[in-house]
Amino acid sequence: MNISKYVDYVVVSGYVSILFGRSRGTEDIDILIKRLDMEAFIKFYNELKGKNYWFLNAESPVELYGMLEEGLAIRIAAKDTVIPNMEIKFIKSDLDRTSLREHNVVEIGKDSINISPVELQIAFKLYLSSDKDIEDAVYLYDIFLEHLDKVKLKQYMKLLKVSGTDYGIEV
Description:
This protein has 171 residues and is of the alpha+beta class.
């Protein structure tokens, strides 16, 4: 499936850590998308249906689009499965817009995936603060230590009012 054919997107949250080798389970891949109009969404919906995907929340593209407009997520999975699934939401906050605007591209063979900036991902995972989120933040920090923009990381951490010093994340 080529989501970028229809809309600008960025993958965020736990899947970013998994993509870089962290061994942990997840039920979904969180994807933020730029707001698109109903006509473009219906084309996207039809392509997914044609490629044997189904929508867990509702069957009607109008209902699904309405959910997105209300700030809710829609879930999409391969036919006859529930897990894993893609959880798709419209971008709604400044941080979401930053994730999309400053995304990184990860190339995997002939394919590529847009991911949230690692510095923002680390700060946001610290903000969420569950055990697995903190472990994700530490993992990303450790593997990207030599490539992180520490100024940006510090800005994001200040914005989200988090500190990583208890976990070895120094900026």
